[in-house]
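Is this the right way to post structure tokens for a design question? Let me know if I should format differently. Anyway, here goes:
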């Protein structure tokens, strides 16, 4: 049997680097959507990728969680190049990631309990009914959703739906949580609650968070490090303050145009 040799990461990939992108490009046909990304996401920190629509955020997210492969470059997750994996190994690596979808993406025909139980029914077939019940109820209690088990998604508020989506994403105990536009479509107060929830979840479950967002206010509150993606290139990175008040005119301009006044926002994380 011919074995493909597993590439090993270059020595500048450090143990504290949970995810490293090295020269990642992605093309669809002749259109290059991601034009050479070099990114490092630190373990147990929150990385926020901001950028306008069409910048390539969703494309990047799909590469991160192994739903699609880069055209060139490496994506090191825990020192393993997921861009070089076959389907079996990729399925194993995908379970490192919990995904919180835009608008929560709950299954409308299933109640809260069944939405949250879904990943366990798919991937933990050895669990007994009782173990499953305990795990789902425990998570719902942790996220303040006790008593909502039999509710249908349509009966929940926007903030509750987010929490159900998060509970579902946490079921397989992922190391990395990826959020796609977590605050989009929410009112400012609920958005702040979701920001708090993202940071509390990172602490409580010891995860690394990657957040795709165009919400600058949210970025300011939760990002340890922010990355500005424009037309498939990261044109600036740093703490949100560094982007807002630093040397990079493109970043300053992007933030100014967002209409968010960074001097009026309170961070909930230490950079
Ligand atoms: N499967 C695909 N086939 C062809 N073009 C695509 C595909 N997915 C995305 N694109 C193009 O890539 C660009 C970036 O898209 P996307 O990653 O969705 O941006 P964003 O999420 O930042 O709005 C867009 O011009 C989009 O039309
Ligand atoms: Mg998108």
């Amino acid at each position: 049997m011919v074995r493909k040799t597993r590439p090993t990461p270059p020595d500048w990939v450090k143990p504290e680097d949970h995810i490293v992108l090295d020269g990642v490009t992605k093309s669809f046909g002749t259109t290059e959507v991601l034009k050479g990304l070099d990114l490092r996401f630190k373990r147990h920190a929150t990385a926020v990728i901001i950028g306008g629509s069409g910048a390539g955020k969703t494309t990047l997210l799909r590469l991160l969680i192994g739903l699609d492969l880069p055209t060139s470059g490496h994506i090191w997750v825990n020192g393993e190049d997921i861009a070089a994996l076959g389907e079996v190994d990729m399925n194993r690596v995908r379970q490192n990631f919990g995904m919180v979808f835009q608008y929560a993406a709950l299954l409308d025909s299933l109640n809260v309990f069944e939405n949250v139980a879904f990943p366990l029914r798919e991937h933990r077939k050895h669990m007994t009914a009782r173990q499953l019940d305990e795990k789902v109820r425990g998570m719902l209690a942790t996220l303040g959703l006790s008593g909502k088990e039999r509710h249908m998604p349509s009966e929940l508020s926007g903030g509750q739906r987010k929490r159900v989506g998060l509970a579902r994403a946490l079921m397989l105990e992922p190391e990395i949580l990826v959020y796609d536009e977590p605050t989009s479509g929410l009112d400012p107060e609920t958005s702040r609650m979701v920001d708090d929830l993202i940071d509390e979840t990172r602490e409580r479950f010891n995860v690394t968070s990657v957040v795709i967002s165009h919400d600058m206010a949210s970025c300011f509150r939760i990002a340890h490090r922010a990355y500005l993606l424009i037309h498939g290139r990261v044109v600036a990175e740093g703490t949100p303050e560094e982007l807002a008040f630093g040397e990079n005119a493109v970043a300053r301009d992007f933030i100014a145009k967002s209409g968010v006044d960074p001097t009026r926002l309170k961070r909930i994380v230490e950079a």
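Format looks fine. Someone answered above. Worth noting: The longest strand covers residues 17-28. The chain is about 35% helix and 25% strand.
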